[in-house]
């Protein structure tokens, strides 16, 4: 017993391929048997000989552009990770412009002694000079 199992997608693909093959054969048959179609195709290519190479060139250019755009996007993702590393947070603290991912400015200097604060938790800060703790 032969069990033939075809998934729906595969069946659609096969049907499409059969239709394309049928239409292709039909066009070839028509071309072989129809003098007017031969004349038409001959005159079409005589005038529009540049269409095929132009189409190929356009495909190559579009493909190349989308390929490089994709590469650029990937490169950007590598250069700008969503999460800040500890080193980046320290640099941002030193530059006094630490902004969280939500865009909130984080307190970076002690309001009492104006010395830089140390991050001890996700939203807690410690002043080394006056030993005060601050919460954002
Ligand atoms: Zn302080």
Q: How are the SSEs placed, and which strands pair?
A:
Layout: H1 8-33, H2 35-47, H3 51-79, H4 86-94, E1 117-119, E2 124-127, E3 133-135
Antiparallel strand pairs: 1-2, 2-3
Written description of the protein model:
The protein is built from four helices and three strands; from the N terminus they run H-H-H-H-E-E-E. With 136 residues, it is mostly helical. The protein is elongated, with a radius of gyration of 34 Å. It folds into two domains: 11-79, no CATH class; 86-135, no CATH class. The chain is 57% helix and 7% strand. The chain has a three-stranded antiparallel β-sheet with strand order 1-2-3, with no helix packed on it. It binds zinc ion. The site of zinc ion has 8 residues, from loops.
Question: Helical percent range?
Answer: 55-70%
Characterize the overall form.
elongated
Mean pLDDT: 78
Q: Enumerate how many helices there are, as a single number.
A: 4
Distance between the termini: 73 Å
> What percentage of amino acids are in beta strands?
5-15%
Bound chemical compounds: zinc ion
Q: Strands of the largest sheet, in order across it? A: 1-2-3
Strand-pairing-aware structural class: mainly alpha
Number of domains: 2
Order of helices and strands: HHHHEEE
Describe the sheet with the most strands: 3 strands, antiparallel
Radius of gyration: 34 Å
* Oligomer state of the chains in this structure: single chain
- Flag low-confidence runs: none
Extended strand count: 3
């Amino acid at each position: 017993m032969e069990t033939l199992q075809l998934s729906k997608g595969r069946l659609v693909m096969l049907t499409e391929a059969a239709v394309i093959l049928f239409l292709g054969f039909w066009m070839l048959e028509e071309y072989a048997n129809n003098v007017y179609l031969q004349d038409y195709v001959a005159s079409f290519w005589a005038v529009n000989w540049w269409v095929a190479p132009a189409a190929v060139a356009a495909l190559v250019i579009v493909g190349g552009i989308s390929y490089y755009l994709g590469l650029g996007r990937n490169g950007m993702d590598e250069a700008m990770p969503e999460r800040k590393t500890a080193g980046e947070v320290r640099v941002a603290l030193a530059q006094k412009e630490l902004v969280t991912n939500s865009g909130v400015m984080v307190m970076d200097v002690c309001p009492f002694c104006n010395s830089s604060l140390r991050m001890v938790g996700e939203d807690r800060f410690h002043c080394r000079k006056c030993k005060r703790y601050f919460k954002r």
